[in-house]
Amino acid sequence: MATANPLREALTSGKFCYVVELVASRLTREAKLLEVASQLATVPGVVAGSITSYAGGAMGHDPIRVGTAARARGLIPNIHVTCVNRDRAGAQRTLEDLHGLGIENILALTGDFPKETVETKAQAKFELDSVQLIRLIQEMREKGMSFWIAAAVSPFKYAEADCNYQYLKLEKKIAAGADYAITQLGFDARKFRELKVYLLEKGLKTPVLGNVYVLSGKAAEKMSRGEPPGCWVAPELLERIQQEVKAADKGLPARLERAARMVAVVRGLGYAGAYLGGEHRAEHVRWIIRRAESLADRWRELADEFNYRPRGGFFLYESTPAKPRKRGRIPRLLDTLGRIFPVARDAALRRLLIGVFQWVDKRPRVERLVERGEFLLKAPLFGCQACGNCVLGAMEYVCPQTCPKNLRNGPCGGTLLGRCEVVDQECIWVEVYERAKAMQRVESLREYIPPRNPALQGTSSWVNYFLDRDNRPGKKVALHRIEEIASARSADRDPKSIVRG
Ligand code: SF4
Question: What is the pTM of this model?
Answer without folding.
Answer: 0.91
